[in-house]
Design goal:
With 138 residues, this protein is mainly β. The chain has no helices and 7 strands.
Length: 138
Amino acid sequence: MIEGLYKFNSYRLGYRRDLLQSEEWTIGVGLTAKIRDARVQLTSGEVSDKKVDLGFVPLLHLFASREFERWMLYLEGEGLAGGPGRAFDLFVGGSFKITDNLSGKAGYRILEGGANVSDVYNFTLINFAIIGLVWDLF
């Protein structure tokens, strides 16, 4: 029997500057510093091998939203491609006000990326739907 472990943690710190901000539209661009913490491991009995990778990935950030009376549509994404790999994280969705401090949120998110280097060839595509509540304290 062969056991496999695939771990890919991602930590991000970003900055966005809104270039256009009106009553209806917000459009912004920015940069994100992503730290990837990856581990791929295969084990069969007493034999085991692993590849661990901790590294920095700079990403471009884009944001656009359109507000209506009680709801908002928006697109948000981060990504960059070049060299041996790529990373993309895109979200499209909307929110609607339930009360002044509570909103509902729903959308679709796609994560895609990986690397093609001498040690590893690994690309992943993850799709999922999001639904949630946003409670605005201030």
